[in-house]
Amino acid sequence: FLPIMGLTLYYDLEASSSLQIGSLKTMSLFLAICLDVVSKGLLLYAFLRFRHLLNHRYGFHAVDKLILIVFVGGASIGVLAYLVRILPEFKVPLMVTGIMLMVVCGILGILYATRLLRLNGNLNGLLKPLAYVSMIGSICFTLVLLAPLGLILSVASTIILGLALLRDGQDDFEELEVV
Predict the structure, then answer these.
(1) CA-CA distance, 16 to 90, in Å (whole number)?
(2) Burial of 87 (0-12, 13-18, 19+ CB in 10 A)
(3) Alpha-carbon span 118 to 113, nearest angstrom
(4) pTM of the predicted structure, to 2 decimals
(5) C-beta of residue 77 within 8 angstroms of C-beta of residue 98
(6) Helix (H, G, I), strand (E, B) or coil at 154
């Protein structure tokens, strides 16, 4: 919810920038950045919990570094998007850097998804949906023009990741109940 709200505020700010006056424009940008920081923090926590789940429950370490690299790359793209708004005189170099970073992150995302498919387990039936949605979203980011679709698939992938973590938590709870 927070990423969608922050993104909505960001694009609202972009669409109405000619109508906004100084302090209102700054306040909207500040609010969008705050929501984005909170959502990135929650996403980082989810990724770290997912890595912990893969390491301890499945003994799977093939995506440990990729999880953090893809997260940092995605967060960097977000920072570049805000910098384009804040520093319009550097718009072209920032956008070129963002596009190059998006392609690299897309390739790394594809690698993450293919490695995730090697897991000896099914994450309560969510392994293949998580890996394939992540892979298709990463392909969209790599193709640049399909990045908006990649963003939607990224949100879907995050929801599937959350479901996998919740289902794993329920399994732990059921194990405690039986004992």
Answers:
(1) 21
(2) exposed
(3) 9
(4) 0.79
(5) yes
(6) helix
Q: For residues 39 and 7, give the distance between their C-alpha atoms in angstroms, rounded to a whole number.
A: 11
Q: What angle do CA 54, 60, 63 make, to 5 degrees?
A: 80
Q: Which residues contact 168 (CB under 8 A, 6 or more apart)?
A: 53, 57, 123, 124
Contact 133, 107 (CB under 8 A): no
The three-state secondary structure class of 132 is helix
From CA 50, how far away is CA 98, in angstroms rounded? 27
CA distance 130 to 66: 15
Query: Phi and psi for 118 in degrees, rounded to 5?
Result: -80, -5
| Exposed / middle / buried, residue 158 (Cβ in 10 Å: 0-12, 13-18, 19+) | buried
Length of the chain: 179
Sign of CA dihedral 67, 150, 159, 132: negative
pLDDT, tens digit (0-9, with 9 covering 90-100), for 58-117: 999 999 999 999 999 989 998 998 898 888 899 999 999 999 999 999 999 999 999 999
